UniProtKB/TrEMBL annotation:
Keywords: DNA-binding
Entry keyword Signal: no
Coiled-coil blocks: none
Protein name from the UniProt record: Helix-turn-helix domain-containing protein
Cited PANTHER family: HTH-TYPE TRANSCRIPTIONAL REGULATOR, METHYLPHOSPHONATE SYNTHASE
CDD domains assigned to the protein according to its UniProt record, in alphabetical order: HTH_XRE (cd00093)
Organism in which the protein naturally occurs: Actinomadura luzonensis
Record InterPro entries: Cro/C1-type_HTH (IPR001387), Lambda_DNA-bd_dom_sf (IPR010982), TransReg_Diox_bact_type (IPR050807)
Residue ranges of domain HTH cro/C1-type in the record: 18-72
Domain of life of the organism encoding this protein: Bacteria
SUPFAM superfamilies referenced in this protein's UniProt entry, alphabetically: lambda repressor-like DNA-binding domains (SSF47413)
One Pfam family per UniProt: HTH_3
Length: 95
């Protein structure tokens, strides 16, 4: 099992933003997990910075939280809006 370094983790999501948006949406980790079709343990690991997340899963989470994928990215990625996450945002918007 590989360890996720802080730099690698930062490339995927901003754990504090995921938690903040979930709480603002009035959802528990279990409710968000069910809606985003992931386990509640995975949501917990994402929020605690112990797991990375694919663009597709982050897009599902953002959709359920009523925000854009880019709102959940690490601060250093927000200006760049990496291509993978921009495409994920477009797929969520198209639903």
């Amino acid at each position: 099992m590989s360890t996720i370094t802080p730099r690698r983790r930062a490339l995927y999501q901003n754990p504090a933003a995921v938690r903040r948006h979930r709480i603002l949406a009035g959802l528990t980790q279990m409710a968000l997990a069910a809606r985003a079709e992931v386990t509640d343990a995975h949501v917990s690991k994402i929020e605690n910075g112990k797991s990375s997340v694919s663009p597709e899963v982050l897009a599902r989470i953002a959709n359920e939280l009523g925000c854009k994928v880019t709102d959940l990215l690490a601060p250093e990625l927000q200006p760049q809006q990496s291509a993978a996450f921009s495409v994920a945002d477009e797929k969520v918007s198209a639903r």
